[in-house]
Amino acid sequence: MKITPEQYEKISDSFPRQRGNVRYDNLTVLNAILYVPEQGCKWRGLPGSFGNRHSICTRMNRRIKNGVPDRIFLRLRQEQILHVGTETVFPGSTVIKVHPDGTGAFKKMVRNQSENQAADGRQNFI
User: Fold this and answer.
1) How many Cβ atoms from other residues are within 10 Å of residue 56's Cβ?
2) What are the extents of the domains in the chain?
3) How many CB atoms lie within 10 A of CB 80?
4) Can you give the pTM of this predicted structure?
Protein backbone atom coordinates (compact mmCIF):
# COMPACT_ATOMS: atom_id res chain seq x y z
CA MET A 1 0.00 0.00 0.00
CA LYS A 2 2.11 2.86 -1.34
CA ILE A 3 0.95 6.11 -2.83
CA THR A 4 2.72 7.08 -6.05
CA PRO A 5 3.72 10.69 -6.82
CA GLU A 6 0.97 10.84 -9.50
CA GLN A 7 -1.67 9.76 -6.98
CA TYR A 8 -0.27 12.18 -4.42
CA GLU A 9 -0.73 15.11 -6.82
CA LYS A 10 -4.49 14.45 -6.82
CA ILE A 11 -4.74 14.84 -3.03
CA SER A 12 -1.86 17.23 -2.31
CA ASP A 13 -4.20 20.14 -1.54
CA SER A 14 -5.54 18.23 1.50
CA PHE A 15 -2.18 18.53 3.26
CA PRO A 16 -1.15 21.64 5.15
CA ARG A 17 1.59 23.72 3.54
CA GLN A 18 5.06 22.71 4.65
CA ARG A 19 7.02 25.53 6.24
CA GLY A 20 10.57 25.87 7.41
CA ASN A 21 13.31 23.30 7.18
CA VAL A 22 11.39 20.08 6.46
CA ARG A 23 13.38 16.90 6.09
CA TYR A 24 10.60 14.57 4.86
CA ASP A 25 7.98 15.49 2.30
CA ASN A 26 4.28 14.75 2.81
CA LEU A 27 4.36 11.78 0.43
CA THR A 28 7.04 10.01 2.47
CA VAL A 29 5.17 10.66 5.72
CA LEU A 30 1.88 9.43 4.23
CA ASN A 31 3.50 6.24 2.96
CA ALA A 32 5.07 5.66 6.39
CA ILE A 33 1.71 6.17 8.10
CA LEU A 34 0.08 3.68 5.73
CA TYR A 35 2.90 1.17 6.21
CA VAL A 36 2.45 0.76 9.97
CA PRO A 37 -1.17 -0.57 10.01
CA GLU A 38 -0.68 -2.54 6.79
CA GLN A 39 2.23 -4.50 8.25
CA GLY A 40 0.75 -4.60 11.74
CA CYS A 41 3.96 -3.35 13.27
CA LYS A 42 4.79 -0.69 15.83
CA TRP A 43 6.54 2.56 15.01
CA ARG A 44 9.77 0.87 16.11
CA GLY A 45 9.37 -1.53 13.19
CA LEU A 46 9.27 1.25 10.58
CA PRO A 47 12.05 0.64 8.01
CA GLY A 48 14.83 3.17 7.73
CA SER A 49 13.84 3.91 4.12
CA PHE A 50 11.03 6.11 5.45
CA GLY A 51 13.38 8.12 7.64
CA ASN A 52 13.58 8.76 11.35
CA ARG A 53 10.58 7.07 12.98
CA HIS A 54 10.41 9.58 15.81
CA SER A 55 10.15 12.52 13.39
CA ILE A 56 7.42 10.83 11.39
CA CYS A 57 5.47 9.81 14.50
CA THR A 58 5.69 13.33 15.94
CA ARG A 59 4.52 14.84 12.68
CA MET A 60 1.63 12.39 12.46
CA ASN A 61 0.51 13.16 16.03
CA ARG A 62 0.54 16.88 15.25
CA ARG A 63 -1.57 16.29 12.14
CA ILE A 64 -4.06 14.11 14.02
CA LYS A 65 -4.78 16.95 16.43
CA ASN A 66 -5.67 19.17 13.45
CA GLY A 67 -7.92 16.57 11.80
CA VAL A 68 -5.72 16.23 8.71
CA PRO A 69 -5.86 12.39 8.39
CA ASP A 70 -9.66 12.45 8.16
CA ARG A 71 -9.48 14.87 5.23
CA ILE A 72 -6.72 12.86 3.56
CA PHE A 73 -8.50 9.51 3.84
CA LEU A 74 -11.74 11.08 2.63
CA ARG A 75 -9.92 12.40 -0.46
CA LEU A 76 -8.24 9.02 -1.01
CA ARG A 77 -11.68 7.40 -1.07
CA GLN A 78 -13.20 10.13 -3.29
CA GLU A 79 -10.39 9.84 -5.84
CA GLN A 80 -10.68 6.02 -5.59
CA ILE A 81 -6.98 5.71 -4.89
CA LEU A 82 -7.27 3.75 -1.70
CA HIS A 83 -10.22 2.34 0.19
CA VAL A 84 -9.30 2.92 3.81
CA GLY A 85 -11.92 2.99 6.53
CA THR A 86 -11.25 4.95 9.68
CA GLU A 87 -13.14 3.57 12.63
CA THR A 88 -12.52 3.70 16.33
CA VAL A 89 -12.96 0.46 18.22
CA PHE A 90 -13.03 0.17 21.97
CA PRO A 91 -12.53 -3.41 23.18
CA GLY A 92 -14.75 -4.58 25.99
CA SER A 93 -13.54 -5.36 29.46
CA THR A 94 -13.80 -9.09 28.77
CA VAL A 95 -11.07 -8.80 26.14
CA ILE A 96 -8.40 -7.12 28.22
CA LYS A 97 -7.42 -8.73 31.48
CA VAL A 98 -5.61 -6.56 33.99
CA HIS A 99 -3.64 -7.80 36.95
CA PRO A 100 -5.24 -6.75 40.29
CA ASP A 101 -2.16 -4.67 41.10
CA GLY A 102 -2.83 -2.64 37.95
CA THR A 103 -6.36 -1.76 39.03
CA GLY A 104 -5.35 -0.19 42.32
CA ALA A 105 -6.42 -3.11 44.51
CA PHE A 106 -5.05 -3.24 48.02
CA LYS A 107 -2.00 -5.44 48.41
CA LYS A 108 -1.90 -8.04 51.11
CA MET A 109 0.50 -7.03 53.84
CA VAL A 110 2.30 -9.85 55.58
CA ARG A 111 3.47 -8.88 59.03
CA ASN A 112 6.48 -10.59 60.47
CA GLN A 113 5.51 -12.19 63.73
CA SER A 114 8.37 -12.03 66.12
CA GLU A 115 8.62 -14.22 69.17
CA ASN A 116 8.44 -11.22 71.47
CA GLN A 117 4.92 -9.84 70.93
CA ALA A 118 5.81 -6.66 72.80
CA ALA A 119 8.33 -5.89 70.07
CA ASP A 120 5.59 -6.17 67.42
CA GLY A 121 3.82 -3.19 68.91
CA ARG A 122 0.48 -4.98 69.16
CA GLN A 123 -1.58 -4.48 72.22
CA ASN A 124 -2.60 -7.58 74.10
CA PHE A 125 -5.80 -7.43 76.10
CA ILE A 126 -6.74 -9.95 78.74
Assistant:
1) 23
2) 5-78
3) 8
4) 0.60
